[in-house]
Each structure stands twice: as structure tokens, then as C-alpha cells.
Amino acid sequence: MTSSKTSNIFGRLDPFEVSINKPNSFVSNVWRLRHWMAPYRWRIALALLFAMLSATSAVLIPVVVSRVVVDGILMHNYRTDLPDYGQTALIQWLATTLNTEQIIAAALVGLLWVLLWSGFGYAFRSQLSYAALLGLSDLRRDLFAHVEHLPSAFYDRVMVGQVLTRIANDIESLSELLTGVGALAGELIPLIVAVSVMLSLDAMLAVKLSPLMLFVAGVIVIFRLYSSSIYQVIRATLSRLNEHLHEHLSGIEIVQMSGREALSFQQYSAINQANKVAETKAIMAETVYNPIIDNISYLAIASILWLGGQHVLNQTTTLGSVVLFLQFSDMLFRPIVALGDQANAVFRAAAACERIFGLLDWKESLSVPLQPIPLPEGLEGRIEFRDLNFCYENGETVIRHFNFTVAPGENIAIVGPTGSGKTTLTRLICRFYDVPENSLFIDGIDIMQIDPAQIRKRVGIIFQDFHLFPGTVYDNIALGNPTITREDARKAAELIQTLDFIEALPLGFDTVLEDRGQNLSQGQRQLLAFTRVIALNPEILILDEATASIDPETEAAIQAALVKVTANRTSITIAHRLQTIRRADRIVVLNHGQLVEVGNHKELMLRNGFYKTLYEAQLYKRRRENTSSRLTQDV
Ligand SMILES: Nc1ncnc2c1ncn2[C@@H]1O[C@H](COP(=O)(O)OP(=O)(O)OP(=O)(O)O)[C@@H](O)[C@H]1O
């Protein structure tokens, strides 16, 4: 029995198609971030404590100036009914202790609060940024671990580049959000402290000023709603510009060969123009917005002088309190403006959260048996297809009623026109996809009852597009498998006749392969791919057109080595060039996913069927190519 394939929360949608317009999802997504931030909660708590201490110090600076210096020292108006948070007593004590004037003591205490304000502010920001960095680095690691285990079917639909940019860019957006929220907390705490001080000094004046704050908040909200749509267009056009650049530069030779430069230029210019229009709108909006915000703060100063002045004349407040209100005006507006400035980061983070968690929640996986049947120690290598039908996600059946048995140790070749299903068959044996139960067996065990990881340890495959990882030659042969020693790698290289070329490299097996083996020739890269699979010593070997890009001399060496490695080992070779598989025990001929003929080369040629037509067509094509290349050389 196998566990059923887990359904995903977005049905058939991809995580990158998920709309961000899901009410409440942002709040719940941000709330979910606590899972990654929780290990750093003490650091966050410490950061918040520093923020409070910084805010308190920030508020005490104006208190010293207004209540002690203006009201007390300059106006001699010591009103004990108004709070001064112990500053008058502290300054008087300091003046007596230092035997100095009160104004000097006030300046020293003011300096102390300035130093504490900046010191605690620095400690708050650094602790919070570090906590965000650690939490998001854990999230990035978890995301990578998750995408690494998503099955091939997922990557058939979603481009790898898309996953990469999502992991990089979306985490960056979250980082902006977390540090932005931290910065906001750093502004909001002084705001709260300032408002409570203002209410305790002159509640009426504070209430009279509140409509102005609401007006500022309204202006900011309207502006940010308008600008967010512009910034969305800017982001979309920028990423399309990048995509266009990437696609056209990576295929620059094809673009130039097919004379597509002008068309490509036109397309790029059109997106660039759309970006320019949006950027211009953004510049216009910002140039109107910034002076408005600046002028609003002057309006606040004027309102405080006007309303506060009346209170001073009525003797309901002191001059020092008005000075304090003036000093606080910046503290009141800065958080509201900062909140507006963070709006874009919040919109970006909302989309990023949606995609990150959409990807993390993507539960697509291969069916894994609850109690897998272990593969026997020494695998015979019998592969049995019983009326196998298979279709990819798009629903079209690509393998139809396929019945065939590969005997232990047999060397099979699969041939057929392009798109006939050759590669698909080999991918099914490697269990990159789920197949219907009781349709594919290895050594008599239904492949759906075997743990996929087990299968991949016992089946070696050389893909058409083999992949070399950053690292040394040895790293690329062993691929982190601790059971493959250097000696194994050496033996494999010897068998496949790659030892000479590896030892000729500057550091032999320790030579670092730059940029996916760009410092090797195509043939050398393919030889390494062969060495890798032979070092693994798999019981079943699959070769997908693996000799396609090797020069005749290297190919001859490989063919000789292959005779050795395929002896007494089940092997399946997909080869487009039919001359290379003439020695196969049996050749399976596929057409439109169906088995049309089976037999060895001789038998199939005698049958005068589909294989013979394919073979002769290829021979004819090859002769024509050779003739035309000879003619070109003669000319
Ligand atoms: N990942 C995929 N998702 C959807 N359809 C696919 C996928 N891979 C292959 N196909 C389709 O399945 C069919 C068989 O493809 P397959 O690659 O197995 O053929 P092939 O015989 O190996 O072709 P070629 O000789 O060109 O490599 C084709 O119609 C192809 O378009």
C-alpha cells in the first residue's frame, strides 16, 4: 500500500501564480514568520528593551530643555503640578555635587541622554537586524530543503529560474519588511512616550493638535495607495527587462544567427518605455509628496505656537511646555511618515510571503510506500513493463500499453522517432514520476512498493544533459557518496579510459571544475559523467544518448569501455544514431509511445519494418551530410 499523493492547497495552480489579493493572508503569513523568529525571541526582546530605553532617553532631552532650562532656569517658573520626571532634582543635585552652575549641569544631563539615546538606538537596531538575519537565513535553508525534494513533475511546470529568483528576491523582501518593522518600532515607541508626556503636560493642547495628525495620516495613506500601483508596474517591468536580457543574452548566438537583433531590440525598448512611463509617474508623485510632508511639519509648528501661545497667555500652561511640544512635533510626525515609507516594503513583502509560504506548503511529492519492500542485496536487474500507460500532468498519454521484459544482464536499446517516449521510459525506471500500480517491476517487485531513494542508488543514469557541480573532479565523481573512495574513482576512470586526461589536468582529481566544467571540452565533460556512473557501480545502467557529442576517437574508447561495463549488467541505451546500438542484445522500437518492434539489429533489418525504415533514413541523411561537407571543403 502507498500513501496517497498529498494534494496541494492551491489545487492545480503553481505557487507563483497565486494571487496576492487574499484578505487576511498577509497578517496570517507574517504571523507564521514567528516560527522562524522564535529561536531568536530573547534577542528580539532585548532589542525591544533597548528601543524603550532609547525612546525614554529621547523624550528626556526635550524635558530637560523645556521644563528645567526654559521653565526653571530661564523663567523661574517651577510648577510642581507639571511632571518633569525628576530632571530638576537630578540637575540640582549634579550642580551641587560638581559645584557648578545649573545650566552647565543641565547641559551635561542633556548630553548624557543624547549619548544614551544614540547608544541604545544602535543596540536596538543591530540586535533586531541580526535576529531578522538569523531567522530569514533559517527560512531560506528550509525553503531550499523543501524545493530540493519536490518531484520532477513540479519542475516540469515551474521554471527553475523562477524558483531561484523567488528564493533570493522574496527572502530579500521579507528582510526589508522585518528591518522596516523594526525601524517603525523604533519610531513608534518614542511617539507613544511623547504622546503620554504631552497629555500629562497639557491634555487640551494635545487633543487640539490631533486633527492635524489625522490629516497627515490621511494624506500619506492616499498617496501610498496611489503610488503602490505605480511601484507595482515598475517592479513588473524591471523583472521583465531582466528576463528579456537573460533570455536573449544566454541565446545570443541564436539571436545573431537568425537575425533577430532588431526584433529583440524592439521588444526590449517597448518594456523599457513602459518602465520609463511608470518611473516618471513615480518621480512626479514623490516630488509633490515630499514638499507636502515637509510643509505639514511647518504647519504643525505654527499650530503649536498659535494654540500653545494662547495657553501660555491664559496661564494654563508654561512656555517650557510649548517648547516641549515644538520639540516633540518631529517625534509625532516621523513615525507616520515612516509608516507611509514602509508601505511599499509591506506590499512587496505581502506578495513575497504569499509566494514563499505557497512554495513551502506545496506538498507535491512522489507516492512513497508506507512499508517499502527492500530491494535484494544482489539485484538481478530484471525490468518488467506490464501494460504500462503513462501521461504527464498535461494529460496526454505518452506511453501506451507497453509490455516488455528486460532479462537480467541484458543490453537493451530503445529507438524511435523524436517524442516517441524513449526518455520517458527511462525516467519511469528511475522513478522520477509515479506510475500506475502493477505496471512496472524491478526483480519482480512493483516499483511503486519500493522507496524511490533505494531505486536511485541501484540504477545509474547518464543523461543527455549531464550536470557537473562546482567542486573538484573527485567531488564530481563521488557526488558526496562516502562509499566512493578516491581509489574507486581512480578505478572507474581507468576502466572508462579517462585516467590519462584527468591526470593531465593541473591538479588531477583535485582540479576544481570552474563554472560547471566550462574549463573542460564537451567530450571531457561527457567522459567524466561516464566515470561518475561507473564509480557508483549500479546494477542497472541507463544511457540516454550519452555518446551523442563525443568525437569518433573518444567514442570508440567509450564504446570499448561500455562493452566491459555492460557485461553481465542490465543496461538500457537510448541512441538516436542507430549504428551505435547494433551490438545490443535486443532493440525496442517505439512509435507514439507504443512498442512496434523488438529484436536484434539483424532480425529487425530482415523484418523490413519500421526499424529498417528508420535505419535507412538515417543512413541516407548521414551520407548526404558527409557529401555536402566534402563538397564544402572542396569549394
Ligand atoms: N516533462 C514533460 N511534461 C510533459 N510532457 C512531456 C514531458 N517530457 C516529455 N513530454 C512529452 O512526452 C512525449 C515523449 O517525450 P520523450 O522525451 O520521452 O521522447 P523521446 O523519444 O525521448 O524524444 P527525443 O528523442 O526527442 O529525446 C513527447 O510528446 C513530449 O512532448
Automatic annotation (TrEMBL):
Any one annotated GO CC term: plasma membrane
Membrane-topology descriptor: Multi-pass membrane protein
Ranges for domain ABC transmembrane type-1: 45-348
Sorted UniProt keywords: ATP-binding, Membrane, Nucleotide-binding, Plasmid, Transmembrane, Transmembrane helix
UniProt domain ABC transporter: residue ranges: 383-617
MF GO annotations: ABC-type oligopeptide transporter activity; ATP binding; ATP hydrolysis activity
Pfam families cross-referenced by the UniProt entry: ABC_membrane, ABC_tran
UniProt subcellular location: Cell membrane
Membrane spanning stretches: 44-65, 103-124, 177-199, 205-226
Superkingdom of origin organism: Bacteria
Name of the protein in its database record: ABC transporter ATP-binding protein
